[in-house]
Write a structure and sequence with these properties.
Layout (H helix, E strand, L loop, with lengths): L1 E5 L3 H12 L3 E5 L3 H8 L10 H10 L3 E4 L2 H4 L5 E4 L14 H13 L4 E5 L7 H12 L6 E5 L9 H6 L4 E5 L2 H11 L6 E4 L1 H32 L3 H9 L20 H14 L5 H13 L2 H10 L6 E5 L14 H11 L3 E5 L4 H8 L4 E3 L2 H5 L4 E4 L4 H4 L4 H6 L4 E4 L6 H7 L2 E3 L13
Parallel strand pairs: 1-2, 1-4, 2-3, 4-5, 5-6, 7-8, 9-10, 9-12, 10-11, 12-13, 13-14
Antiparallel strand pairs: 6-7
Helix pairs in contact: 1-3, 5-6, 9-11, 9-12, 11-12
The chain binds 1,4-dihydronicotinamide adenine dinucleotide and uridine-5'-diphosphate-glucuronic acid.
Length: 439
């Protein structure tokens, strides 16, 4: 089938590439010509394991094309996916400007009746709004049907998630569209749920809100564990063995970040508000997360009092491992606060340094070398559980830092190993480790 995908960010690019891999002829359209130039040469614009090989392979086979001109991809397309951003507005609601512009681009360029599939995460009602917008603006008598096909991939495992997802949700107006979309997706060998459009839109927000709730719940339990002398890792293990609870998303830490949980939880609160429903549970989830992101700072100030003039190693800038994405990373909250308290920060990340420089500027130093970050540091703050950090030989903290004092926002280390390594160690929801060992 001939498919066009509008937007080549995390979702659009991975979707377009995956659809080309399963045999469709795909044109990916992006208004950013620098992205299109790189992608056309087979150079990925995002870090995603497995993506580069698939881009190169499908460009060579003739199944995958990139363009910055809507008139190059849309006229022939039988199905068009919208995968542009839906960032957060100042009031928390989803900003639909990019989706609406994509709708106008479709209306101006299609030459036949097609199905438009919205992959972007959009509030309930948006699909019908976009369908009407397109159909009001087509000039040559053609019209579109609309379908909601929300995306559930995670950054860092986007390719794997696309080929081996838990489910594909297809919300349509009629059985014929549902059948066409089911056929397009059939080679993914993933269970397909056919439903109505509003339910499909709601499934996406509810899924993200529920996962965020699990994280805030375990973080709140972690904070209780600290007051009560329990260990949250043990508690999560004991809870997760109950199949009704499950072990996933029970990792306590510095709070959730990323381009979606923060914005989608806020958007759902707004959406509920529009329907005169106070979503108090989700409001608390957001509040817990906001507090969690600065919890380590309280621990640091409790330990030191004044930290002015100290050298701090910050390990990890990305919002999670295996991505160079910094959107809503706890690092963006923590580092400016540390800087405002007069410390000098050297930040380590294996792949996100270039993106971080654009956001955090030149007030801090950056390195892709873990040992360089630790050298002569007065204390270390762990923000991202990169494998490089988790696998580090704990004696290096002792060898390289002025004093091995570590504030770990991701519970990277086993407490018995920490004891052996003679570190002063503060983590989340576990007993602090032996400050008296430090001379
Ligand atoms: N990033 C993620 O892991 C996931 C994101 N989502 C949702 O998918 C949507 C897209 O997210 P991302 O891929 O992260 O966004 P992104 O911001 O990385 O990419 C959006 C792309 O669309 C392009 N664009 C904007 N307007 C355009 C237009 N009129 N024509 C052509 N290109 C246009 C931009 O230049 C940009 O390259 C959002 O609604 C998000 O909530 C859903 C699941 C996972
Ligand atoms: O809508 C989206 O954009 C996507 O949002 C998340 O994916 P992603 O943001 O890529 O990453 P996650 O692995 O879900 O992690 C999100 C945040 O939660 C944190 N987290 C995750 C799990 C956990 O147990 N504890 C925890 O603190 C991570 O460190 C990270 O900051 C969802 O997992 C995807 O299903 C969804 O498609």
């Amino acid at each position: 089938m001939k498919i066009a995908v509008i937007g080549t960010g995390y979702v659009g690019l991975v979707t377009g590439v995956a659809l080309s891999e399963i045999g469709h002829v795909v044109t990916c359209i992006d208004v950013d010509p620098s992205k299109v130039e790189k992608l056309s040469k087979g150079i990925p614009t995002i870090y995603e394991p497995g993506l580069e090989e698939l881009i190169k392979k499908n460009i060579s086979s003739g199944n995958l094309h990139f363009t910055s001109e809507h008139q190059n991809g849309l006229p022939d397309a039988e199905v068009v996916y919208i995968a542009v951003g839906t960032p957060q507005r100042a009031d928390g609601a989803a900003n639909l400007d990019y989706v609406e512009q994509a709708a106008l681009d479709i209306a101006a360029n299609i030459k036949q009746n097609i199905i438009v599939v919205i992959k972007s995460t959009v509030p309930v009602g948006t699909n019908f709004h976009i369908k009407n917008l397109i159909n009001q603006h087509t000039t040559n008598g053609v019209h579109v049907k609309i379908a909601s096909n929300p995306e559930f991939l995670r950054e860092g495992s986007a390719v794997k998630d696309t080929f081996h997802g838990d489910r594909i949700v297809i919300g349509t107006e009629d059985e014929e569209s549902a059948e066409i979309l089911a056929q397009i997706n059939e080679p993914f060998d993933t269970p397909i749920i056919k439903t109505d459009i509003s339910s499909a839109e709601m499934i996406k927000y509810s899924s993200n809100a529920f996962l965020a709730t699990k994280i805030s719940f375990i973080n709140e339990i972690a904070n209780l564990c600290e007051s009560m002398g329990a260990n949250v890792e043990e508690v999560a293990k004991g809870m997760g063995l109950d199949h009704r609870i499950g072990p996933d998303f029970l990792k306590a830490g510095i709070g959730y970040g990323g381009s979606c949980f923060p914005k989608d939880t806020n958007a759902l609160v707004q959406l509920a508000g529009n329907a005169n429903h106070e979503f108090n549970l989700l409001k608390s989830v957001i509040e817990v997360n906001n507090n969690q992101q600065v919890l380590l700072l309280d621990k640091i100030l409790n330990r030191f009092g004044n930290i002015q003039g100290k050298r701090v190693a910050v390990l990890g800038l990305a919002f999670k491992p295996n991505t160079d994405d910094l959107r809503e990373s706890p690092a963006l909250v923590m580092i400016p606060k540390l800087v405002s308290l007069g410390v000098s920060v050297i930040a380590y990340d294996p792949i996100a340094v270039n993106n971080a420089r654009k956001q955090l500027g030149t007030e801090i130093s950056y390195t892709e070398d873990l040992t360089e970050a630790l050298k002569n540091a007065d204390f270390t703050v762990i923000i991202t559980d990169w494998p490089e950090v988790k696998k580090a030989d704990l004696s290096t903290y002792n060898q390289l830092m002025k004093e091995p004092i570590v504030f770990d926002g991701r519970n990277c280390y086993d407490l018995d190993e920490v004891k052996k390594a003679t570190m002063e160690y503060y983590s989340i929801g576990r007993p602090d480790q032996a400050p008296e060992l430090i001379s």
